[in-house]
Amino acid sequence: MIELKNVTHVYQDENNVTALNDINLDIEHGEFIGLVGHTGSGKSTLVQLLNGLIKPTQGKVIVKDTVLTGKKVNLKDIRRSVGLVFQYPEHQLFEETIYADIAFGPKNLGLDKDEIEVRVKEALNLVNLDYEKFKDRSPFNLSGGQQRKIALAGVLALKPDVLILDEPSAGLDPQARDQLADLLRILHQEKNMTIILISHRMEEIAYLATRVIVMHQGEVVLDGTPAEVFSHEKQLHKLALDLPQITEILHQLRAKGYALNTDIFSIQAAADEILNALRSKKKC
In what order do the strands lie in the sheet with 194-198? Predict the structure, then answer.
């Protein structure tokens, strides 16, 4: 689906900061990738390369056999195929009605009126908002969580093959975060969408991702399943990254001698594992 070959990106200014350094990466269709790293690790730069918002200083970015770094690339098609949702996407709302805001992208694709309406309805349904109730309302009179849903619906209306989200749960209350997580799970599992999620919330990453990529100083330092990556407790702490809280508790209990698995990411499964360890009094 996406391939990066020897990609380096340097921001050309008075400091000439190297944001990415010789990245080689393959992203397969249907993956759910959690992209994590401390501030300044290169995460946001990396995802902006994937739909041609910026071009690398060196190397190649290939999306569905199209070399984005080549000449005469149709970036309009690429950006339809690779949807990017920035942090606080509600700040990008600008139309007078919700319908017009969601329809903006499909309209620019040259779709006819009937197809645009179908896509707006489908997008609102995906984010669990009633079409008739919301279509004529102003997006600026909604709650923050609802505004974010509308912004996301605007990207979903383009029917992208890949959905990239940069800290989508930032600033949301717990209920809105849970709703967003459920939506992303549905998009991945039921709609077979490839998703790349940047998040500092490791619980979110552990719950949703099938693969976790850890970046540090413009390089990929860990890449594997959540269980594989979160087993590197000491290395993650050195990178100023947390483990999921459940995983942290399991590691602490294991350090005290209890024989239990640490590659568990649900509260119920962790509770069962801890109870079994306490009942058996089995030590490592």
Answer: 82-85, 162-166, 194-198, 32-37, 211-216, 219-224
Report domain extents, the chain: 2-238, 244-284
Closest CA to 247 of 275, 227, 217: 227
Class of domain 2-238: alpha beta
Listed residue (45, 2, 43) closest to 24, CA to CA: 2
In the predicted model, is pLDDT for residue 13 greater than 60? yes
Nearest-5° Cα angle at 178, 172 to 180: 75
Q: Are 222 and 35 in contact (CB under 8 A)?
A: no
CA distances from 128 to 131, 153, 165, 169, 176 (A): 9, 10, 18, 17, 12
Measured at the alpha carbon of residue 157, what is the angle toward residues 152 and 159, in degrees to the nearest 5?
105
Which sign does the torsion angle of CA 35, 36, 42, 43 carry?
A: positive
Buried b (16+ CB within 10 A) or exposed e, 215-247: bbebebbbeeebeebbbbbeebeebebebbebb
> Measured between alpha carbons, how far is 149 from 154 in angstroms, rounded to an integer?
9
Residue 115 has what pLDDT?
Answer: 96
**Chain segment 192-227, per-residue pLDDT in tens:** 999 999 999 998 999 899 999 999 999 999 999 998
How many whole angstroms separate alpha carbon 70 and alpha carbon 73? 6
Residue 68, pLDDT above cutoff 70: yes
Render pLDDT for 21-66 as a digit per residue (tens, 0 to 9).
999 999 999 999 999 999 999 999 999 999 899 999 999 999 988 9
Q: Where are the beta strands (DSSP E) in 46-139?
A: 58-63, 66-67, 82-85
Tell me the whole-structure pTM to 2 decimals. Answer: 0.89
What are the residues whose beta carbons fall under 8 Å from the beta carbon of 116, sequence distance 6 or more? 103, 106, 107
